[in-house]
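Hi team,

Filling in the usual template for the complex we talked about on Friday. All components are listed, including any nucleic acid strands or ligand strings, so the model treats them as one assembly.

SUBMITTER: L.P.
PURPOSE: interface mapping
COMPONENTS: two
RESIDUES: 228
SEQUENCES:
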Amino acid sequence: AQSVTQLGSHVSVSEGALVLLRCNYSSSVPPYLFWYVQYPNQGLQLLLKYTTGATLVKGINGFEAEFKKSETSFHLTKPSAHMSDAAEYFCAVSGPGGYNKLIFGAGTRLAVHP
Amino acid sequence: DTAVSQTPKYLVTQMGNDKSIKCEQNLGHDTMYWYKQDSKKFLKIMFSYNNKELIINETVPNRFSPKSPDKAHLNLHINSLELGDSAVYFCASSQGTPFNSPLHFGNGTRLTVT
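RESULT (copied from the run log):
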């Protein structure tokens, strides 16, 4: 079975500061990992995903995440926060082999202040 | 040109009523989903259909019945509404599995049961 834990339901950073959102997963099979972002009153949008290959994955809006199998982690980072990055971020895991179900974490709300 | 559209956006109703939420996607995707997001932002899959066939049916009360008249539509009918059904319901679609194609979410339907 797969599960996702996001450490910190709220993260607050200053504009221009490093963004680090933490995600740890549990999976009995090699995981496929995702980060989605949800802006207020909208649905989720895919930021990036890891399936196989390179463990450092780059996504949209300057975000990237690194898959670390030894730590069962897939933390999301961005070197310099913008005000427009304020949103809810969701980590998700799914298994391979045509498995359609994404298991989402509880989300982390990112606040960016001037 | 909304890719995944849900109606209505807001739905306020009383306990015991029956209501429906409609979802349509114009992306040509073959897989559609219903997710429920509770007041703590926790997102959980309810159903998934692939080419009008049910492929995921999570532990959801029988009062919830999805219907897919064609692969571009996935409606959700809820009988005998209860207070605990209050949540935001998201429809989503993808081409095949989430590994091959990101989920495209609608903007959600906020259901309030009084």
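MY TAKE: Chain A touches chain B through 25 residues (CB under 8 Å). Residues 39 and 80 of chain A are 19 Å apart (CA to CA).

Thanks, L.
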